[in-house]
Structure prediction request, 206 residues.
Amino acid sequence: MAYEYVSKGELKEYKYLVNNFFRDENGKELLIKHKCYYRLVGSSKRNLVLRDGAKNDGFDLDYQIVFYEYKKMKSDEMIEIKREFKLALDKFLTNYGYKNGEDSTTAITYKKIDGDKINTGYDFVLLMPLKDNSFAVFKYNDQEKTTMHLAQVKDSKDFNKNYKKIKGEDSSKLRNDYKEAKNNNPQNKRSFSLLVECVNNIINGK
Prediction:
């Protein structure tokens, strides 16, 4: 792989589209109903969106739908919440050339295809803060997608606090480390897990 950063200018219209969804009646209503917010992994300010240049494909924007506080949920309730977001996102994004979302193990994934190439894509993951200040994702237990649980993101305790601490030269180091992690990812870890590792390494002086 040969990941390189996508420019802020190129990302602008794709971030604008997601912002519009969550300002739209359906998206806004879901955020209020479930007491959550959305964010781009790596944040808009740091711009940690990468393209795999080796494939000459487009790029994916990884979004999180994050609950404000921990709430104990049953499996059926978690599945229903994910379904609600998927249906609303399907209805919105298909108007802009995206296929209906794929309800994968942890994400809702959208792709826009030009010929045999991926133009752009979005991944939306539902994230719950836990009582120890770590995070957990909504994750199916089985291929049939009949039950779901909260899967804790490894070493994510105090991520928000630690991420905000990274400034100045460490911000440049984070961009370099994150790109290197994406280029050397044999276990195919999700973007947020890689970002957590990179942030922790900087905070711990590695």
Notes: Residues 3-155 form a domain with the Beta Polymerase; domain 2 fold (CATH 3.30.460). The chain has seven helices and nine strands.
